């Protein structure tokens, strides 16, 4: 609990955001090493303002700390930081990754090897509802983790589709993970916790604030290989998620709709911009060189070094040059060649002309 307290104290400091907090911990180690001390190294850092340094000299409890502790214990809330092994690697390469996450349920590395966001309007049409169910269930059966935002309409239906298929699903919250919003989806949230997780960068006890939800949308797209926009207007949160996906070098998929329906305005607009048209789950599966199978194809077990290479390939999709892999992994030519051969034999990667490597999932 002391670790959580120090991290919250760090992020509550004036003029400190996620990026500065992460950079500071990379230099000085865990916040417990320098909060509440006159750390000379901290005082010498140019990128930390003077008022922030003075704030961090004091070792005070964060605001409402006793209440936060009570909520963590009551709801069995877990906590991970950017530097923990369980932190989703795919999230580290987005702009402004959260320095920490709170969650309820379970987070697994394999959740994000084949993950897809399905988002859309709260006021879904019958067509949108039916397609969310059909596509969501098929993707879940193919081994995809379905990520969405637990909102009314398409988001909730995407989670339900995954659960109905016995698959994994993750809900990204714009509140603390103890505050289920909308309240109507409390029962759904409990089911998600049993078959995935609800996660948030907001401190337990944080209420629903309208400005939180656009910010959390970067996490929905950031946790996934791609985002499927089912329905929504051009100004909807779903379209904002697609913008984040584009900025994060993730795939954007869109369900074409009736041009006379306002719900179809957003996806049809994305298709004009070059989003990949989806008429069935097969269109997404083919994008990742997958085929429908009666039994989900399990992702092979990877060693630590194989995992490192695979994450670099995913972060630099669609293809990565061998020399880039050398630079980003720090392996020798011989070591990298051997590991890539192992990944090829597991059908995880394939080599393409130009000495480039492509991830198969």
How would you describe this protein?
- The chain has 361 residues and is an alpha/beta fold.
- It folds into 3 domains: 2-88 and 97-103, no CATH class; 112-287, Rossmann fold (3-Layer(aba) Sandwich); 304-359, Winged helix-like DNA-binding domain superfamily/Winged helix DNA-binding domain (Arc Repressor Mutant, subunit A, Orthogonal Bundle), CATH 1.10.10.
- It has helices spanning 2-11, 18-28, 40-43, 50-57, 65-74, 126-141, 154-164, 186-194, 212-222, 237-247, 265-273, 281-287, 304-315, 322-329, 333-345, and strands spanning 78-81, 100-105, 115-119, 145-148, 169-172, 196-200, 226-229, 251-254, 276-277, 320-321, 349-352, 356-359.
- A 9-stranded mixed β-sheet has the order 1-2-6-5-4-3-7-8-9, sandwiched between helices. A 3-stranded antiparallel β-sheet has the order 10-12-11.
- Helix 6 (126-141) packs parallel to helix 7 (154-164), helix 6 (126-141) crosses helix 12 (281-287) and helix 9 crosses helix 10 (237-247).
- The radius of gyration is 21 Å and the shape is globular.
- It starts with a helix and ends with a strand.
Number of helices: 15
Query: Biggest β-sheet: count, sense, barrel?
Result: 9 strands, mixed
CATH class call of the largest domain: Alpha Beta
The CATH architecture classification of the largest domain is: 3-Layer(aba) Sandwich
C-alpha-based Rg, rounded: 21 Å
Order of strands across the widest beta sheet? 1-2-6-5-4-3-7-8-9
Strand content: 5-15%
Structural class: alpha/beta
User: Which segments are poorly predicted (pLDDT under 50) over 5 or more consecutive residues?
Assistant: none
Q: Indicate the overall shape.
A: globular
**Distance separating the two termini:** 37 Å
Overall strand count: 12
Can you give the helix content as a percent range? 40-55%
What is the domain tally?
A: 3
Average pLDDT for all residues: 92
**Helix and strand string, N-terminal first?**
HHHHHEEEHEHEHEHEHEHEHHEHHEE
CATH topology of the largest domain: Rossmann fold
